[in-house]
Automatic annotation (TrEMBL):
This is Zinc finger protein 652 isoform X3. The keyword Hydrolase applies. Mg(2+) binds at residues 19, 21, 192. NCBIfam families: DKMTPPase-SF, HAD-SF-IB. The active site is at 19 (nucleophile), 21 (proton donor). It comes from Parambassis ranga.
Length: 255
């Protein structure tokens, strides 16, 4: 799913990409949905069907099981709405919301799904901030089951079958640069996971990666700097609280 908002102003100076799970919210939404299940856990036979690299297919089975157990759309929405934001994240979203209109184009790239993400963003009043949301499509069918589909297919060996965030980021920045007739001054990427390292690899030396400190994305950047100096080009600003991201963005916007 790649949802649109209204026409994007062509003269935004910067673009900032966000991951969702453990970046905007302080949990993994796929794990949290289990709280809607009977007894707040999944049966062993279902957990045993998971295969590495096939997580999207596994989640489709989980969602089918929840529907069979009578879990409703409002049950799932209620669980999503209660997930806490990561430290300082609401401050960062508010900072972006109150910037001049020409500062930031804001994009979300997540391997969660559209229903989980939209539920949380609407509850916090953050939906309108995001110009685009790239995630796995998910809609309720007539039987009340949340049906999720893979976002796309790709050839990247680093990423799960259904989503390579580098393909999404590269394609989007390239297309928007063509539409605008000029590049962004800087590209920013805020994330935490191993699948956020892949898109951050495509950033240039004027861009900034904001990995959550000591999470997989941060560790992979550190390991790459040690093993292959020069391979990872972006400036790296690790964060524990997203208020640290605000502080760096304030400086860069003022330049």
């Amino acid at each position: 799913m790649a949802s649109h908002s209204a026409q994007i102003s062509p003269d935004k100076r910067f673009i900032i990409f966000f991951d969702f799970d453990e970046t905007i919210v302080d949990e993994t939404s796929d794990d949290m949905v289990v709280q809607a299940a009977p007894g707040q856990h999944l049966p062993g036979w279902l957990k045993d069907t998971y295969q590495p690299g096939r997580y999207n297919e596994y989640m489709q089975r989980v969602l089918a099981y929840l529907a069979e157990q009578g879990v409703t759309e409002s049950d799932i929405r209620g669980v999503m709405e209660k997930i806490p934001a990561t430290p300082g994240m609401l401050t960062l979203l508010q900072f972006l919301r109150t910037r001049p209109v020409h500062d930031f184009e804001v994009v979300l790239v997540s391997d969660a799904n559209a229903f989980f993400i939209e539920s949380w963003l609407r509850r916090t009043g953050s939906r309108q901030l995001f110009h685009r949301i790239f995630t796995n499509p998910a809609t309720f069918n007539r039987d009340g089951r949340l049906v999720m589909r893979p976002f796309h297919s790709h050839d990247c060996p680093r990423c799960p079958d259904n989503m390579c965030k580098q393909v999404i980021v590269r394609d989007y920045v390239s297309r928007r640069t063509q539409e605008r007739g000029r590049p962004y001054q800087r590209v920013f990427y805020v994330g935490d996971g191993a699948n956020d390292f892949c898109p951050a690899l495509s950033l240039g030396p004027q861009d900034v990666a904001f990995p959550r400190r000591d999470f997989p994305m941060h560790r992979l950047i550190t390991e790459t700097h040690e093993a292959m100096p020069g391979e990872f080009k972006a400036v790296t600003v690790p964060w524990v609280s997203a208020e640290e991201v605000v502080q760096r963005l304030r400086k860069l916007v003022a330049e």
